[in-house]
Amino acid sequence: MTIIRTIRKPIRTAFAALAIAAVPAAAIAVPALAEGTKTASSAATACPTGWGSLPEANSRYGTAPLVDVRTGRHTCFDRLVFDIAGKAPGYSARYVTNVYQDGSGQLVPLRGGAKLELVLRAPAYNDAGRSTYTPANRRELTNVTGYTTFRQVAYAGSFEGQTTVGLGVRARLPFRVFTLAGPGTHSRVVVDVAHSW
C-alpha cells in the first residue's frame, strides 16, 4: 500500500508540471489580435464555402465599357476585378479546354492546370469605337507571380459588345462571380478562385 502511494504522487506531480508547461505554449501559438479583428478560429470560417466549379452566368448586356483589369491575393482565394465605367454588365464564367480570341478564333495560350473563360457582356471600347482598355501586354494583363491559384491572365479581345479574358489557374478549383457598385458611377465584376476545395 505504501509503495503504490509513493508511485502515484510523482506521477501526479509530473502531470501537473506538464499541464503548467503547456499553457505558455498555447499562448505563444495564438498571436495577439488587434481590437476589432477576428479570432483565428473565426477567420478560418470566413474562407469560401458553397462555391463550385460549374459555369456561372448573368445574361444582362451593358453598354458601359471595361476600363481596367486588376488582381489581388487574399487569405483563401485569388481575386480578379474588372473595372467598368458605368453599370455592371452580365458575365459568363466557365472552365474550358481552351480559350479563343473574340472574332478571330485564335487560341489564347494559358499557363496552369485549368482554364477559366471569362466573358463580360460589355465592350472594351466606347461609342466612337475607341479602345477604353488597351493592355500593355495582352498575354500578361497583371503580374500574378507568387499567387497561390492564379497562373496567368490574358486578353482574348473585345468583339460585338463583349470582352473575353482567359484566366489560367493551378487546378480546377471552386470560384464565384459577383458585381459591386462603385466607386462613384463605376462598377466592378469580381471573380474569386479559391486556393483549395
UniProtKB/TrEMBL annotation:
Name the UniProt record assigns to this protein: AMIN-like domain-containing protein
Organism: Kribbella sancticallisti
Pfam short name (any one): AMIN-like
Keyword Signal applies: yes
Annotated keywords: Signal
AMIN-like domain location: 65-195
Signal peptide: 1-34
